[in-house]
Prior knowledge:
By secondary structure, this protein is of the alpha+beta class. It has a domain at 19-150: Nuclear Transport Factor 2, Chain: A. The protein is built from five helices and six strands; from the N terminus they run ααββαββββαα. Strands 2-1-6-5-4-3 form a six-stranded mixed β-sheet. The chain is globular.
Amino acid sequence: xxxxxxxxxxxxxxxxxxxxxxxxxxxxxxxxxxxxxxxxxxxxxxxxxxxxxxxxxxxxxxxxxxxxxxxxxxxxxxxxxxxxxxxxxxxxxxxxxxxxxxxxxxxxxxxxxxxxxxxxxxxxxxxxxxxxxxxxxxxxxxxxxxxxxxxxxxxxxxxxxxxxxxxxxxxxxxxxxxxxxxxxxxxxxxxxxxxx
Length: 196
């Protein structure tokens, strides 16, 4: 069970439709079990539960892939603390829920907060879920993270961070430090170029 309480009336991003209204408008073309799983996953996203998400919506051997992190088995979510470790004052909101077929659905959600450089960030994520029609549980969960609205070095740092998240913290820190140093060297090189 998820351990973090969630109040949809206070946990939302200003200007976006509250989760309660998104869920009210959601029409499930599949079984009640599938609908229950999707609503729980949406709730966990908005509550920023990450590693503390509910186990009930997922099959024990669920396959996850976001292009950087890949694993099979629900226990893989135990190390999902990217938002907690990287984004300050994070807030998440589901912006769209839809059924693509009886056994598949798409959840689009947005993450806002403060990035590693102190600037505001906005990240859009599209989650595609493949369901077991009998149990209603997710058997495959894929995500695409869009950093296009994150400016400059903050966007680069976040992409490095999520790409290296399964590596040791030493390796991640070294990669980020290298990125900073390379960026500074490029600025210094440009400043030394003679003006024509």
